[in-house]
Design a protein that fits this description.
By secondary structure, the chain is of the alpha/beta class. Helices cover 24% and strands 27% of the residues. It has 2 domains: 198 residues, Alpha-Beta Complex (Quinone Oxidoreductase, Chain A, domain 1), CATH 3.90.180.10; 120 residues, Rossmann fold, CATH 3.40.50.720. Strands 3, 4, 5, 8, 9, 16 and 17 form a 7-stranded mixed sheet that branches.
Length: 333
């Protein structure tokens, strides 16, 4: 039996829950969970914001732990290895996207907490292709958030071809944005942090920002018109997107990894005149996750975390709901 914490209704409290996972599949891995990060997506699933939640719901998709068992068809990893697991727990392995290395775009990709039980538990299972070995010297406590928040930021660096000479803006210095600053600074970019919280300036600079702009100041965006090659939005808010597009240089890109509450409304003419682009991306493939871990190890990048025991999961979720973490919460199992 696997012991977990589950909600039995929309927005419900997480309570102790046990389930029988059944026989281990040939290509399945079972992980003894040691740490599990908490992501805003866990809260969205708990509240059924996307109308895909099924109850009882066991959240948790930023898992770090040790392999406990492997199916007989698993040859890439072995029992005893330290590994991580993120949003995806499986993909078909046969479509054009999987065969091309873009497993994260597989139409039949399986999510760790959608229609199955996640990592707020002592054990969790997944297909071997999405279970990623950890570098030997990585901090296990802080590694979990890399498998959702971290790869969400690292993937567009790769996919959008960000160059070390690019001038890049990061909108929002929170759970995602604070990692974006570290990644882009280590990548070699000139980095500007956009935030409506002036008190975050000192910390943003320590995390890698070369410049800080208080986005609530009048004319703040007008002052940086035609300045950036790439701007990435990490926030779940509706902002002055036309102002940010105006801040792009020709061929610049406004890229979204945060989900806006409402559809975008942008003027097309400035996009045409400057050959600018509005784009978005999901999490990355297993290969890109592996590359991110190499990069993190090389540059000693870590998410900033607060650790709580698993039995305080409801307190942790309340903290997240009230916007209190600075910057990521991690449960110790």
């Amino acid at each position: 039996m696997i012991k977990a914490y589950a909600a039995h209704e929309k927005g419900g409290k997480l309570k102790p829950f046990e389930y029988d996972p059944g026989e281990l599949g040939d290509e399945t891995i079972e992980i003894n969970v040691e740490y599990c990060g908490i992501c805003h997506s866990d809260l969205s699933m708990l509240d059924n914001e996307w109308e895909i939640s099924q109850y009882p719901l066991v959240p948790g998709h930023e898992v770090v732990g040790t392999i406990n068992a492997v199916g007989k068809g698993v040859k890439t990893v072995s029992v005893g290895q330290k590994v991580g697991l993120g949003w995806f727990s499986g993909s078909c392995m046969s479509c054009e996207w999987c065969m091309g290395g873009d497993h994260n775009l597989c139409p039949d990709a399986e999510s760790t907490i959608v229609g199955r039980f996640g990592g707020f538990a002592d054990k969790v299972r997944a297909h071997y292709s999405w279970v990623i070995p950890l570098p030997s010297n990585i901090n296990l406590e802080s590694a979990g958030p890399l498998f959702c928040g971290g790869i969400t930021l690292f993937n567009p660096i790769i996919e959008c071809g960000i160059k070390s000479t690019d001038k890049v803006g990061v909108i929002g210095i929170g759970g995602l944005g604070h990692m974006a600053l570290q990644f882009l600074d280590a990548w070699g970019c000139e980095v500007t942090a956009f935030s409506g919280s002036p008190d975050k300036e000192e910390e943003a600079r320590k995390l890698g920002a070369d410049h800080f702009i208080n986005s609530r100041e009048k004319d703040a965006l007008e002052k940086v018109a035609n300045s950036f090659d790439f701007i990435i939005s990490t926030v779940n808010a509706d902002l002055d997107w036309n102002g940010y597009i105006n801040a792009l240089r020709p061929k610049g890109k406004l890229h979204f990894v945060g989900v806006t509450p409402n559809p975008l409304s942008v003027a097309i003419f400035p996009l045409i005149l400057g050959q600018k682009t509005v784009s978005a991306s999901p999490l990355g493939s297993p290969h890109t996750i592996g590359k991110m871990l190499e990069f993190v190890q090389l540059h000693q990048i870590e998410p900033m975390i607060e650790v709580l025991p698993l039995d305080q999961v409801n307190q942790a979720m309340d903290q997240l709901k009230n916007g209190q973490p600075r910057y990521r919460l991690v449960l110790k199992v």
